[in-house]
Design a protein that fits this description.
heterodimer, A: about 750 residues, alpha+beta, Leucine-rich Repeat Variant, five-stranded antiparallel sheet, three-stranded antiparallel sheet, 32 helices, about 10% strand, flat, B: about 140 residues, Beta-Lactamase, two-stranded antiparallel ribbon, cytoplasmic vesicle (chain A)
């Protein structure tokens, strides 16, 4: 109407959300006023405006009563907007909707098709169970009266009523037989939907309708053979929507039922071969046909036909078709494995799909198709995929390869190579047990020890960042280091490795800030094992003149690590440590973020027993970087941040030059008072833009008279170079009191984060 | 079953919304925003079907408008894809090359057309002449 466009124009003219709100509020006030005292002749226009406003997301509930009034009006234009309004604004939760029941009843029995259509449409959208009870007989009457316009809507309204009140199936089942003889496509479509709904709800109905399978087959056959002369043709396919609906019903009726499946066998083959596949409409029908073949007791030949159709779909340029093909093949791969195998090359091609939802399906399908005869070729394809696949598929791809390798590895060496390659490519995405599995695999393959240690050494020398790889390599070097240094291995490139190179590499791992505590544990164990076996003319092992064995650098290395670790062990073992670490990681302050979850524990490698030092992997989480001074720390001055009754807290900072985003803070607690500080716990919090990892402290007692300080390492990752803030919370017992101190470190030097 | 039928433009403004299964009013805007975001983030190399919460979304773009249909998993995606085009062809016929403005200024008529095609989440009529017949009659009635 004349007023409508103005509103829309005004809304379009609004430049900001606030402006739009203003326009709408003004208009709603106007609409409300007009509902109250406006001309009833224009009410429908006002409601129409309100519906527009409602679509934009603004509240419009005050229009509900207007809908009722309009529906009750004799004018068609009023009813039209009223019913539409009811569909959009009303739902079961409002009492108002029940009030339209009478109007609907009247309108349904009036005999004016357009009005009946409106009433049915609204009834089938918002009709509550109560309303459905009330109006069921009205709708039933309309099912069999002459006008097709109303009948097609009545049938679908019946579907809604059955969904709301299943008992009404009794009323709506009997008319179906007659309705199925209709030629009007709209009525047929609705009837098929109604029968489908009845069958899905009741096994008795399902049994009952199996009788009509021959009839359905006939209807579908007529559609398929009629060609493009009908009024419902789309892209040369007769009413694809009706075909799809019939196929779906046949699927439900034929499922687990030999006789019905047999009755439809020929027809399905006919549809499969006669449907024009050049356009989407035909392919939609073909797709539904494949689904029906898959899900019913089809003859073997028909099933193969279905799989081949899907295989052809995979080659189609249309990605939508490839998508449904991949999804369907995935469903069939277990039941029709050999048929699907024939399309393996095409499936593998689909790994390269740019659409991640397709490549994910292709991955799943590829993994399902790996068997002992194709494992080498398939693994090769999957490994290349792993190198370039989207990040969210890496974990699945990596674990899929590892699983396939485990099941079908042709040789042990191939198996080791495969795992090695996965660890190198996607080490961070493998599951925790990959390390243990590989160490066990290597351990159990004596003939491959020399090969494994050489390959792992080379891999490690190239890259020490992939933690699982580093862990396995460190373990292997520890176990078979002598094979690495002496002797040769035919299967690898000749490799001359000197002792000091091996030790230097392990030391590099130990000191790297990329190494997790678990990894350090492996490296340390390896060093310890090697130190008992090596010749000793290495500077790490060398003593300075006049000193004893115990003064060698390696001994100090080990001792520092062990000493720092021991207090933790005294406290009662791994579970304590873990709980402690996680508690320390929490700080209940709203503005600042808490720390990372506790570091995962390493797997104890399955050791070999005699002759090898089978030490359980330690978890030396308290290795302070100050032990190893290979790097000159960026010279940031130390900071005293806290002092109370003799307890002092100092912070020292290290910014490792190769990882500028990383800041290492060593917190040192010293006690000059006459009484021990006990139960000392330090917690920390940093801004959200940073990541904090607290490592376990060296102890929780700060001994009196300036005894051995307690130290704790904080690792802060600050990639955005955001101004650093640090909040500390201390709790401890001292001089007979429980103390809690929370404070922010105010004077952090800018060099800690710039 | 069709759960909802949306027409949303590239700026995220909803031009038509029809829900066949009740969704709370306040959740609708959020749903529409998320749906359009999913569609806008797709490239032309990606297929037209998106898995979205417990729906499947089938979408097609016509100029600046996205038509997005949310269905449950019993629906044939390709048939719905075809249906969307069927709907647009009907609009094209009625409005003679339909534009976004046509839809905005004739929202009630678009609703009527959609209601002739989908009832209660089920497709009821796809024949263009039959869909438009009642509307054309009524137009004639209001002219006279």
């Amino acid at each position: 109407g004349p007023e409508g466009p103005n509103l829309i124009e005004e809304i379009r003219g609004a430049k900001t959300q606030a402006q739009e709100r203003e326009v709408i509020q003004k208009e709603c006030a106007h609409i409300r006023a007009s509902f109250r005292d406006g001309d009833p002749l224009h009410r429908h226009r006002q409601l129409a405006k309100l519906l527009y406003v409602h679509m934009l997301g603004y509240p419009a509930h005050f229009g509900q009563m207007e809908c009722l009034k309009l529906i009750a009006s004799p004018r068609f234009t009023d009813k039209r907007v009223g019913y539409l309004g009811a569909m959009l604004l009303l739902d079961e939760r409002q009492d108002a909707h029940l009030l339209i029941t009478n109007s609907i009843k009247n309108d349904l029995s009036q005999g004016i098709q357009a009005v009946q259509g409106l009433a049915l449409c609204t009834l089938s959208t918002v009709g509550s169970a109560e309303m459905c009870w009330d109006l069921a007989t009205e709708v039933e009457k309309l099912l069999l009266q002459p006008g097709s316009y109303v009948r097609k809507k009545a049938v679908l309204t019946a579907v809604h009523m059955i969904r709301k009140v299943p008992e009404l199936s009794n009323i709506f089942l009997p008319p179906c037989a007659q309705l199925l003889h209709e030629r009007h496509h709209g009525i047929l479509l609705g009837t098929i939907t109604l029968i489908t709904e009845l069958c899905e709800r009741s096994p008795a109905a399902l049994k009952h309708f199996r009788k009509v399978v021959p009839q359905l087959v006939q209807i579908l056959r007529t559609l398929v053979m009629t060609g493009y002369s009908t009024e419902h043709s789309i892209s040369g396919v007769s009413d694809p929507f009706l075909q799809v609906q019939i196929l779906r019903l046949l699927r439900i009726l034929g499922r687990n039922h030999e006789e019905s499946s047999e009755t439809m066998n020929d027809l399905l083959a006919q549809v499969a071969t006669n449907t024009d596949t050049s356009r989407n409409a035909g392919n939609a029908v073909l797709f539904e046909t494949v689904l029906t073949i898959m899900d019913t007791r089809s003859a073997a030949g028909l099933r193969v036909l279905a799989v081949n159709i899907l295989g052809r779909f995979l080659l189609n340029n249309d990605k939508n078709i490839r998508y449904v093909a991949l999804t369907s093949l995935l469903r069939m791969v277990q039941s029709d494995h050999s048929a699907v195998q024939r399309h393996r090359p095409t499936v593998v091609e689909c790994l390269r799909e740019p659409d991640a939802s397709l490549s994910r399906r292709a991955l799943e399908l590829s993994l399902a198709l790996v068997n002992s005869s194709n494992v080498r070729a398939m693994t090769q394809e999957l490994q290349s995929f792993l190198e370039s696949c989207p990040p969210d598929l890496r974990a699945d791809c990596a674990s899929g390869i590892l699983l396939a390798a485990e099941r079908f590895a042709p040789t042990k060496r191939w198996h080791i190579d495969t795992i090695l390659r996965v660890l190198t490519t996607a080490g961070t995405h493998v599951r925790d047990d990959a390390v243990a599995n590989l160490t066990q695999l290597i351990g159990g393959a004596q003939e491959l020890h020399a090969y494994s240690v050489r390959r792992l050494y080379s891999a490690l020398a190239e890259d020490i960042s992939q933690q699982p790889l580093v862990q396995v390599a460190a373990w292997c070097i520890g176990e078979y280091g002598d094979l690495l240094l002496e002797g040769s291995c035919e299967e690898t490139e000749p490799l001359q490795v000197k002792e000091e190179e091996v030790l230097a590499l392990l030391e590099k791992v130990l000191q790297s800030h990329m190494s997790l505590p678990a990894t350090r544990g492996y490296a340390l164990t390896a060093l310890m094992k090697l130190s008992t076996r090596l010749r000793g003319d290495n500077k790490l092992l060398m003593k300075s003149p006049g000193s004893t064995q115990r003064d060698t650098p390696i001994f100090h290395l080990l001792r520092a690590a062990i000493l720092e670790k021991m207090p933790l062990v005294e406290r009662g073992g791994t579970q304590d440590e873990e709980a402690k670490e996680s508690k320390e990681a929490q700080l209940s302050e709203a503005a600042l973020v808490s720390t990372e979850p506790p570091v995962r524990r390493p797997e104890a490698p399955r050791g070999r027993g005699l002759g090898r030092a089978s030490t359980p992997s330690p978890a030396p989480s308290a290795l302070s970087p100050s032990c190893f001074s290979l790097h000159t720390p960026a010279s940031v001055p130390n900071l005293r941040v806290f002092e109370r009754e003799g307890l002092q807290l100092n912070l020292s900072f290290v910014r490792p030059p190769e990882t500028p985003a990383l800041l290492l803070i060593t917190v040192t607690a010293v006690n000059t008072s006459g009484a021990d500080v006990t139960h000392f716990v330090c917690q920390a919090a940093v801004p959200k833009s940073c990541q904090l990892q607290l490592q376990a402290p060296s102890g929780d007692t700060v001994p009196a008279q300036g005894g051995l300080p307690v130290t704790q390492l904080l690792r802060i990752f600050n990639p955005n170079k955001a101004p650093l803030r640090l909040k500390l919370r201390l709790t401890y017992h001292h001089l007979g009191q429980s103390v809690q101190e929370i404070f922010e470190v105010n004077n952090l030097p800018a060099e800690t984060w710039q | 079953m069709i759960k909802f039928f949306l027409m949303v433009n590239k700026q995220g403004q909803t031009r038509l919304s029809k829900y066949y299964e009740h969704v709370e009013m306040n959740k609708r805007t959020l749903l529409e925003t998320e749906v359009i975001k999913s569609c806008l983030s797709r490239s032309s190399e990606q297929c037209s079907f998106i898995e979205f919460k417990d729906f499947k979304l089938i979408y097609r773009q016509y100029a600046a408008l996205f038509i997005v249909v949310g269905v449950n998993d019993t629906e044939n995606e390709m048939a719905i894809y075809e249906f969307i085009h069927n709907f647009v062809e009907v609009l094209d016929e009625y409005f003679s090359r339909v534009s976004e403005l046509d839809i905005m200024f004739n929202l009630d008529k678009v609703h009527i057309i959609l209601d002739e095609m989908v009832l209660n989440g089920c497709i009821v009529e796809t024949n263009r002449a039959r869909i438009l017949a009642p509307l054309l009659i009524l137009d004639k009635m209001s002219e006279s």
